[in-house]
Amino acid sequence: MSESEPRAAVATAAASGLPPSAASQRAAIGAVERLSTRVAFFIAGLAMAAWAPLVPYAKARTGVDDGTLGLLLLALGAGSLVTMPLTGAIAGRYGCRRVILLASAVVCATLPLLAHFSGVPAMALTLFVFGAAIGTIDVAINIQAVIVEKASGRALMSGFHGFFSVGGIAGAGLVSAMLWWQVSPLNAALSVAVLLALLMLFGGRGLLRYGDDSHGGGSMFVLPHGIVILLGALCFIVFLAEGAMLDWSALLLVSQRAVDASVAGIGYAVFAAAMTIGRFNGDRIVQRFGPRPILAVGGACAAAGFLLAALIPSAATTLIGFALVGFGCSNIVPVLFTAAGNQKAMPSGPAISAISTLGYAGILTGPAGIGWIAKISSLPLAFVVLGLALVAVAASARIVAARR
């Protein structure tokens, strides 16, 4: 049988509304689908990170204070939280390809608008739509990744997430460089939108025309239950830790370690570099040792990193702690997404939607919680609390590994 025959069978089944058989899925998935999945993760990371350097310009253009800006930025998170719980069922009904391409088109359309609008209502609405598209892409690419990994018969998820990390570095770096070269925010955003469109055209061929086939056309929203609740809680903790590194690592260096504010961003850079390196080596580790050491050793490593950064008053030691957090956290989320795709308590598409939503809730609520602890006590104590929470992730390794 030629390679085109199973692909045609899958396409025919998808067009008729019937889920393709497991055998035809496995036969149809190969190098093209793996490449498209990597490109989609890179696009997701690039699109999200491209917005970050534009935030100060949006603040100046709208003329809002810090409090109003914070409320505006909540619109982005709200958009993601609205669409994430629904995307699993939508992808199961219409296929990953349609969902990813449509959401990517929305990102390409809204990103330049975020660099153009100066009115608060228009910015809030556009941020909501942009966040909804980002959240949709995030869930759909993970559904595709689970299907591709299953069909490939080997660990791939950490590498896929590694491309998300690289996309994030590329997006923030590219926009920052263009702004430094005096390119206007609008032209920088337009350039990124064009790049995203070109990447989607290049990588769209291998996006799957189907999604999770176990949903059975049921309700668009399924409450998480069984092991999925635990997976979502663990995602919440790890995403909370990642959000803490993004929002609070520089402040810890400045306020507690006497590092100059102009170079305090090195803390997050060390964390991000360690996470990226860890993810590109994660598949080999999972393939050889299984998921349990990733959760046990990774959770313990990240916990040690937070405790080291919080308790030893040295800038160099704090940076080492940040690196340990990056290495420790790097492969936990990919393992949790794989576990969500393999568990039997609920359909894998809605399960991935559920843990994505809970994880993103950690990013949104975490910084405020850390700020509250820092206000009533100290920022180092808040980092200690995060370290203890990651101990719970390490302790869950046996349960998660047993339920794969």
Mean pLDDT across all amino acids = 88
- Shape descriptor reads globular
| Cα-based radius of gyration, to the nearest Å | 21 Å
**Counted beta strands:** 0
**Percent range for helical residues?**
over 70%
Give the uncertain stretches in residue-range form: none
Please count the helical segments. Answer: 17
Q: Looking at the chains present, what oligomeric state does this protein adopt?
A: single chain
Largest sheet: none
Assign the structural class, choosing from mainly alpha, mainly beta, alpha/beta, alpha+beta, or little secondary structure. Answer: mainly alpha
Order of helices and strands: HHHHHHHHHHHHHHHHH
How far apart the termini lie comes to 33 Å
- Portion of residues in beta strands equals under 5%
Can you offer a commentary on this structure?
The protein has 404 residues and is an all-alpha fold. 81% of the residues lie in helices and 0% in strands. The chain has helices at residues 4-15, 22-28, 31-51, 55-62, 66-94, 96-114, 120-152, 157-180, 185-203, 227-257, 266-289, 291-311, 315-329, 332-342, 348-376, 379-395, 397-402. The longest helix has 33 residues, at 120-152. The radius of gyration is 21 Å and the shape is globular. The mean pLDDT is 88.
